[in-house]
Structures are given as structure tokens and as C-alpha cells.
Amino acid sequence: MLKFNDVSFGYKSQRELLFSHLDWQLEAGGIYGLLGPNGCGKSTLLYLMTGLLLPKDGNVEADGCDVSNRCREVLAEMFIVPETFELPSETLRAYIKLYRPFYPHFSDEIMQRCLSEFDMPLDLPLDRLSMGQQKKVMMAFALACGTRYLFLDEPTNGLDVASKKLFRKVMAANIAEERTAVIATHQISDVAPLLDGVTMLGRSDSQSTSEVLCSSSLKALTRQLSFTLETYPPKISDKRLYTERTPFGYACLALRQDEEETPVNLELLYNALQQGVRIPDFS
Amino acid sequence: MRTQVFGSFGQMIRWYWQTEKRLYLRLFLTAFGLYVAQEVLSTALEELGGQAAQEALLRLFNDELIFWGMILYCLAHMFSALECKQTATSLLSLPAGNAEKVLSRVVYATVGIWLLVFLGRCAANALTAMPLLFNPETSFGEIVRRHVLPGTWILASIFETYNVGDVLVYTFGSLMIALWPMSLFTLCGVLFRRYGWLWALFIFIAATFILIYLLELNEHNAAWINAHHAQFVWMTCAVVVVLSTANYALAYRSFCRAQIISDKMIRL
Description:
The complex is a heterodimer of chains A (about 280) and B (about 270). Chain A has about 280 residues and is of the alpha/beta class.
């Protein structure tokens, strides 16, 4: 389990704190989406989870260990693929040879499978690959490392449409149930089919700091909320939380009562939360 | 547990070597270039201004200056070399403890830099000994023995001393003297993202002046040192070890607080 205990964090270049007294936790197992607008601290949260950033106050725990200490046992169970990175001029074969001893659960089988899915060669110098190809290589390596926690920061940036589809396929096929993947992105539709849960960040009206607006499993959201598309403007009711006009009609978000379960419309939920709508805590 | 720590230590050294081959090649070429420049300049000055001009140059631009200058300058750069986007995030997220990362870095870089500067000197000697290859009276082995290897001042001093005990004392003394500036340059390299070597140099010069005042210019201290020479040597060693340990400990603490901000490693 990943746990933020009363975490405050801010960059020196900014006067205000980015997170103030943040309490948040993520149950182990599953793929979680970390969604939010630009600058709300998605990447910062990932970096705090991996110990690459250190909180000003409070602490972040992974399975009970403080990640700020960056001890070997904790780091061996974490892998982060940053949004942008540079790869060395080595071949992928040499890269794997260099890094795999650090990861005790590294799987050659998964590596081979992911590479063949992505159609990536082993003997090409990594620095000659395009950004999209480098992302594929890093994601294949990240999946093969077998770490308990996997963090991906904007993984679909730089991928073409076909590669995005492939990314979802590879992720779904190669992430074991007991592993936890956190995908930070603002491109909700790219990752929505993969997700078991979502955490949405944003800024409330009264505060300049970012906060977790919603953190829940998709199952819980399906049970508690109703997402419908209506032809005519819906009537105002207590249960209706948010309505948005779309080219196909009116997308409505409401608290679910007796009606049938509807698939979660993450974009609608995201827009509602960013517009100030607050939903009850379903966890 | 111990096997794991030593295992990570070895892995970290391998990682440093693999990720920094180009840096080490640059350092070797710099050392080689400096030694070649020294040879060329001293030969040219001997031709133009005679032996006095050559000696004047070698008093300023001598082997020791190049050797220690290179080592200290490189030590101040060994942590800032890790700051680039490619290595900073990888290093901090690599599954190894902070102590393993810092210790392996310090040991590996220190030994590596010594070796590179030494090899740079040998290569420069080899280059200047090239014309001897065309001399039929000189064998290849002799060229290597007399001109390539003994030219380095370390080997020369060891060969000249002959006495094993003296060699050990000399080596130990050199290491003790070198320990404090090496730790100081390492610390400043960790603390400051830019011009760490300049800060270290400033502190080193200031400390040297204070030391000279305390040991040489202060008559009371000078008299005490003359009377208790052995005691003074041991005291100096103890102070050097304590100060150096403090420097390395501070460098370690600073590394532990390092963070990745905008793809760069920020330590202060």
C-alpha cells in the first residue's frame, strides 16, 4: 500500500505549497489513473512516491517503509518511467545487462514478449530511437522488472494512435494482479480502458494548493454514480450533480439510485470535479 | 546481507563505469594533453631561453601540480557529472542504498581518477619517447622501462627510495596529506552545482594560510612542534582523519537529501 501521511510539498521557485497536509492512500494491486490538469502536481506526486522528491512535512510510505530513505529494498520494488528521459548510446541488450541485476524479479520472458509486441530490435543504439520508440523500450523494461510498484508519467505522450492501442494491450497483458501501476496523465481516453481505479487532482476554489478531489475504484464509482446521455436538457434534481452539453446530447452525472449500473465516464467525472462538483467518498 | 551490500557495491561500480565511459576518456585525454603540453613547453623553453627558463617553467607547471590539480578538479566534478538528465533520475531510483551509491562513487572515482592521471602521464611519456623507436641501439623494453614508466614521479620516487619501509611511510604520508583536500573537493562538488572546485580551492587556500600561520609563524607553536615532532605527526594525522571523515559524512548527508527537480539533481 502507498500512503501519504500529512504530506506538504512545494517547490522553492513557487511561493505557495503545491500540496498541503495531504493524506491519501492507494491500495496495492491494480492499475490506477492519476488524472488532473496541467501543473496540479501529478508528476510531483509520482516523484514523491518514488523518493525522487522529498516532502517538506509528513512522509510517504510504501508497504510501511518511508520512501524518503531510498533504501535498497524499497527501490527494488519500484520503477518509474518519467515523462521525458534520455537513454544512453548503448544497445538495448547492453542496457538490459547493466540494469537487470538491480531488479531481482526481472523477467526475460516478459521483456521478449513486450519487445516483440512493440516490434523493437535488441541491437539498435537506444539514443538513435525516436521518442515514441524510447518510450516503448522503457515501458517494456519497466514491465519486465517485475517491481511491485510501477509508475508511468504521461506514458502515451509521443505515441501514435496504433502505439497507444498497443500500449494498452501490452500493459493489460503483462501486469500481474498483485502489482500496482500508477499512470499519471491528462489524456484520460488513452488509458481509461486499463484502469481499475482513479485519483483525480485539482485545486479547490478556496485553496491555491492541489488536493485529491476523488480517489476511488471504478467498481465503487459504478455502484455509486450514474453516467447517462440524455437528448433533452435534464431537469434539476437533488441527485443530479453535473450536466454537460455534448454533440450527442446532454451528458449527466448523478448519484445512482435504483437504476442500472452505467459505465464510468471518466471525462465527465473529471470535468465535473474540475468545475467544483464534489462527490461523496466511496472508499 | 553483507553479500547483498557488496553485490550492490559491485553493481554500482559497473553502472558508473558503463554510464561514464566518455567522461573518463575526456579526463584521460585532458591529463595526457596537460603532460604533453608541459613536455613541449619545457623543451621549447630550453631551446629558446636555456635551462634557467625551463626550470622556471617547471617550478610553476610541474608534474605534482598537474597530478594533484587533475585529481582534485576531477573529484569536485564527480558528483556534478551525475546531474545530467540521463543519469540523475536513474541514479536516485536505482535499487541500492544511499551509502552504497556514495561510497562506491567516492572509492571508484578516486581510484579511477588516480589511475587515469597516471595513465595520462604514461601516454604522454610514450609519445615523447617515440623518436627513440628509430634508434637501433635502444630496445623497446628499455624505452618502456626508462622513458615511459619511470618518468612518472610516483614510480620514480618509489624506485629511487628502494627501502620498502620508507616506501610505505611515504605512501601512507602522501595519502594522509591528500585525504583532506580530496574529501574537501568531494564535499564541495556535492554541495555546489557549479564551481564546486572553485569553492573548494578557496577554502583549501584559506585553510593552508591559517595552517602556515599556526605552525610556522607562531613562535610558540613552532617551538612546541620542534620539541614534540612525533606527537605532532600523530596529532596531524588524527585531525586530518577526523576532518576528512566529517567532509565525507557531510557529502553523504547532502546526497541523501538530493532531489530531482526539472530532471536535474538538486542537492541544496
